[in-house]
Amino acid sequence: MRPIAIRIFHWVNLIVLWGLIGSGLQIYNANPVFGGRQGWHIPGAFLLGGWLGGARNWHFTLMWFFGLNLLAYGLYILFSRRWQHYFVQQKDIKALAQSQNLQRRQFAWHRIVYTIAIPLLLLSLISGISMYQPSQFHWLARSFGSWQNLRTIHFLAVPVLISLVIVHGTIASNIGNGVLLRSMFAIKSTSNS
Amino acid sequence: MSTEDKKFTRRQILRWVGGGLLFNATGTVLYDPIGRLIRPVNDRLGEAMLSQRLIPEIDLGDHVDLGKLIVNSFDGTPKIDLANFRLQVTGQVNKPLNLSMEDIRRLPYESQITQHVCVEGWAAIVQWGGVKLSDILQVAGVKSTARYVYFTSADGYYESWDLASAQHPQTLLAYQKNDAPLPPENGAPLRLASPIKLGYKLSKWVTAVTVTDKLMTKRGYWEDQGYDWFASI
Predict the structure, then answer these.
(1) Which of A2, A75, A180, B84 has the fewest C-beta atoms under 10 angstroms from its C-beta?
(2) pLDDT level of residue A185 (50, 70, 90 thresholds)
């Protein structure tokens, strides 16, 4: 099994991101980023909250779990020194260029994908804080250039993070025929894991 | 176990997506209790972040144009008899006021270019001109027991604010927008404008300002339907 801290991080992220996407898209529907009120609306099955106010309740509840989870993860990789050897390194790039070993190449891709995940998760958090408090955090919000840029970047977190989860999950499930993925989401230790 | 069993199967993926959609359906039913839990927490956060410091104005220098406000009102634009218009300032004040637009225009003029942010997700950069609400409150003399300010509008819209936000130096009662007299659909003759609150806090067609020591059960047209009360931005 993976370390408990990393398993919790993955579980919380998976559930909270799903909820943030559903409530975020419900908020989006109040005034679509592309095209305004006449723009294309997201179908109801994928939405969370029922209406704008309900979606805001969920979005601004889950943002705490998302942010604190990311913070706890950051502290964990800092103090466990995982940051020194856990993320993508020169040798992974070299392996992709030179190695014929399928397992080694898979592992290199795996590290690239989850390393990219970190800045993407941070960007969705920062763009979210900027939209939530554009006056109190004016220095942050204005660094995005314009409100439309900010909205677009925050919205793009949805397709980007969904793609990332699919790619990350697919690669992980190929490593050791699913053993890695199972061990990441294992809730309790079982004899065959 | 064969190796195929160990990988994620289509069936497992469908199970996860199904679980996700069920999560959405359940969560949607629970939007109200979740809101009752979280809104006081986030209101507290907004209160903690509030200071009387100025939010820097938007620099119109390079590419920024004054934006267009989408007109939202719950009951159309009310007809207001401008000649007989009065702004009432009452409640926990030493000297209740009954001001005409002439009286209000005689108070110091303030202009600011700030971002108006709507709860729906759009925003517009607007030049607002008018009088600081804090100047009016100062003339009326707010009592030491005062903690909240209520705004009543000609169309029946109502809002309540914390006193500190109402006294913020950029909270205006505006009678001018984008270098022209405030248009009727944007709240003429007098509306709230401020860079520290979401648009639904910025009442249009304001006719009465009531200072209170308590928050009443009715806290605002939208707040009573489930929007957050502090609505800091």
Answers:
(1) B84
(2) confident
Peptide bond into B169 cis (omega under 30): no
| Average pLDDT over chain A, rounded to an integer | 91
* Interface contacts A/B by beta carbons within 8 Å: 120
Predicted-complex ipTM score: 0.91
Residue B160 lies in a domain: yes
CA distance B103 to chain A (A): 31
**What pLDDT does B7 receive?**
58
Report DSSP letters for chain B, one per residue.
Answer: --HHHHSPPHHHHHHHHHHHHHHHHHHHHTHHHHHHHHHHHHHHHHHHH--SSPPPPPP-SSS--PPPPP---SS-PPP--GGG--EEEEESBSS-EEE-HHHHHHSPPEEEEEEEE-TTS-EEEEEEEEEEHHHHHHHH-B-TT--EEEEEETTS-EEEEEHHHHTSTT-EEEEEETTEEPPGGGTTT-EEE-TTB-GGGS-SSEEEEEEESS--S--BTTGGGT--SS-B-
Instruction: Give the type of residue at A172.
Output: A
Rounded to whole angstroms, how far apart are CA atoms A163 and A165? 5
- Rounded distance between C-alpha atoms, residue A10 and residue B17, angstroms: 17
pLDDT given at position B3: 46
Determine which of B28, B45, B62, B224 to mutate to test the interface with A (most A C-beta atoms within 10 Å): B28
Mean pLDDT of chain B: 92
pLDDT in tens, B107-119: 999 999 999 999 9
Question: Residue B65's pLDDT is what?
Answer: 63
> Which tens digits make up the pLDDT trace of A30-56?
999 988 888 889 998 899 999 999 999
Burial (CB < 10 A; 0-12, 13-18, 19+), residue B74, is: exposed
- Residues of chain A with Cβ-Cβ distance to B23 below 8 Å are 15, 18-19, 22, 48
Residue B74: give its domain's CATH number: 3.90.420.10
* Test mutation, A38, A57, A142, chain B, max B CBs within 10 A: A57
Chain B contact set for A178 (CB, 8 A): 6-8
Where do the domains of chain A lie? Answer: 1-82, 87-193
Its domain, for residue B54, covers 50-225
Residues 68-127 of B with CB under 8 A from A: 70, 114-115, 117-123
Please report, as a single letter, which amino acid is at residue B13.
Answer: I
Domain count, chain B: 1
